[in-house]
């Protein structure tokens, strides 16, 4: 049974201001909830329309059995998927020393929730531990982002901070003689496939329509682009540009793939 | 001014059965409509809430000036974007001889409209001319697909056909001694980065949850997978798989990028 004020509380978490105030977010679906249970994230309460089994490590978590109709009333999904969990928003420290030893993503105002979720899933696949987002990037605990991560939210650390200040601090931390590599995806960049890619550094992905913001550009040490193999246009089409860009998440995937391919 | 029965007709094209019957589809937004005007596609009528300029090559096309409120009534978008065009559905021939000389994508029941649109945009970027879809793949003239292509629909040929019969016919066409290369994205495939990739052939992308269907598997000559660099899990997470898959469009992008990188 789902108490009326409980349903109201869970629904209130659909708004960012309430998530911020309560320090809680909602995740749905068997796969994502199981991934969260096996991660360092703290799951507070689980609501399930079926018999949801907890492992021995999670016996302390409340599992509340509810009806499917009740799940529908608190779900953000068109087709609710058995289980909904209320989780604590984790707090990660930005550790410049650790970041200096890894490859990380920097998101400069990615606004589409599906793009952010997909980028987190890509980071997970390619073993990227941390994503640093501008404050204007869509909030990661937005239900649409959480669902698009397909569980990868439990394995990738997502930070929000002012990017120019972050870059300055990171640059200062870098020891003399060490590389401070910041790759920026830009249409006028060097051919990705021919650029010398380091195993450590930052890949900056700009906003879906405006690209990388001007206050971040001075920190870019290597502009890179994914070359287009678009067919030459003829006749009426000549002079008209063909494929103009790749989606931000698609570009992220191609770039991460190329960095990781070089590792071996 | 938008006549009432005109509005009704345009709205009827939101349904596949009406698109099929009329041989028409709807595209929206300045960028996409301009791309269509410069392609081989036939634009029938343009409805615009602003002063839409046609080039000298397109003076025969009707441009109907309508109010923003009228555009809203016929648009599929949350925020209508100035212009809506009614276009003829093109008919492409499946030419096995031409396909035998190119790299093409084969989509085995991609169901998400956003995924199909994004895959068409990826094909355009990487110079892939043809996409062959199973009949169960989401219809390309679905407004959500059209919008997700960002105009690439005007440059990539999308075919629908029974895939096993298509593969059989293509195989027969291939001359003795020539390669018939069919790459299938599969989790148990060979490392993409280490596979010998031909410049011509087919890349099969399977359904978002079920992968490549069993009746298509016999035609796959090379199973390939994008290796995961996901971090080794420890403690509570040990034994639990980490990132389980990449989204179908993301996998397509990484694979196309790797094929094209090898071209040079």
What is the CATH domain class of the largest domain in chain A? Alpha Beta
* Biggest chain pair interface: A-B, 46 and 45 residues
β-strand number of chain A: 10
Strand order, main sheet of chain A: write it out.
7-6-5-9-8-10
CATH architecture of the largest domain in chain A: 3-Layer(aba) Sandwich
Going by helix content, strand content and strand pairing, the class of chain A is alpha/beta
For the sheet with most strands of chain A, the description reads:
6 strands, parallel
Shape of chain A: elongated
CATH topology call of the largest domain in chain A: Alpha/beta knot
> Which bin fits the share of residues in helices of chain A?
25-40%
- Give the amount of beta strand of chain A, in percent: 15-25%
Task: Please give the radius of gyration of chain A in angstroms.
Answer: 21 Å
| Global mean pLDDT of chain A | 92
Quaternary organisation of the protein chains: homodimer
